[in-house]
Design a protein that fits this description.
This protein has about 240 residues and is of the alpha/beta class. It contains nine helices and nine strands. It has one domain. This is DUF4276 family protein.
């Protein structure tokens, strides 16, 4: 008898450190699923050349590309899960301020984003306007094309959640994650649950909805939060949600 083919879970992420942080534990817990990370190495929620295109269409096209590239059959895809960085996209424009003496283009802080010029301020305001709209749309989405879909976030990004670094050095990202995992004394999902902004006792869909409502409020998308622990709950009970 032919061995049953594993159902594929496609994980869209912004960079390679997401995979490094999560892949081993996900494969350990969900041996009956094929977990495939697909780093985008960019911001799919804000592409200036495609800003007029509906975000569901943009992500749907990306999923089709992945299926063709990986030669996955549509019937074998269990879900498309998406982990994104908030990058302060929900804050009001008045919290984006100019500091002409700043050496970097953009600096993220606990209560504002500072930029080094008026031109950069305009760019970040436009980015936030488009990005927040697109993220809001996908936070409520349950399907992309015919595939189950769920979005999760790291706020401001992965390094902020794990190391409390809002503006990390890019050079040693991988080494720091590796060292972190070697010394971590609890499952990664338990670690991430500490930064869940609401009580996780809620039923999954309610917790997911509330966590997104929270991060869109006030300055929260600059704060140290994540709802990525819900992803483990989703995969554990996928038959209830798909």
């Amino acid at each position: 008898m032919a061995k049953a083919q594993k159902k594929v879970v496609i994980l869209l992420v912004e960079g390679d450190t997401d995979e490094l942080l999560l892949i081993e534990r996900l494969r350990q817990l969900f041996k009956d699923k094929e977990i495939r990370f697909e780093p985008q190495h960019g911001d799919i929620f804000y592409q200036r050349e495609r800003k007029e295109q509906a975000i569901k269409e943009v992500i749907g096209e990306k999923v089709k590309e992945i299926l063709m590239k990986r030669k996955f059959k549509p019937s074998n895809v269990l879900a498309v899960l998406h982990i994104l960085d908030t990058d302060g996209c929900f804050i009001a424009p008045e919290h984006i301020t100019v500091d002409a003496e700043q050496s970097v283009l953009t600096q993220y802080n606990a209560d504002c984003i500072t930029v080094n010029s008026e031109e950069q301020k305009v760019r970040i305001e436009e980015r936030n306007e488009i990005r927040s709209r697109n993220v809001h749309t996908m936070s409520k989405a349950t399907h992309i094309a015919q595939y189950a879909y769920q979005a999760y976030y790291f706020s401001r990004h992965l390094e902020h959640v794990v190391f409390n670094e809002m503006n990390p050095c890019k050079e040693d990202k991988f080494e720091k994650i590796e060292n972190f995992l070697e010394t971590l004394e609890m499952p990664i999902e338990n670690f991430l649950a500490q930064y869940m902004p609401i009580e996780q006792q809620d039923e999954y869909s309610m917790a997911h909805e509330k966590s997104w409502e929270f991060i869109a409020e006030n300055m929260n998308s600059l704060k140290q939060y994540t709802n990525a622990s819900l992803m483990f709950q989703f995969l554990e009970n996928d038959s209830k949600h798909i």
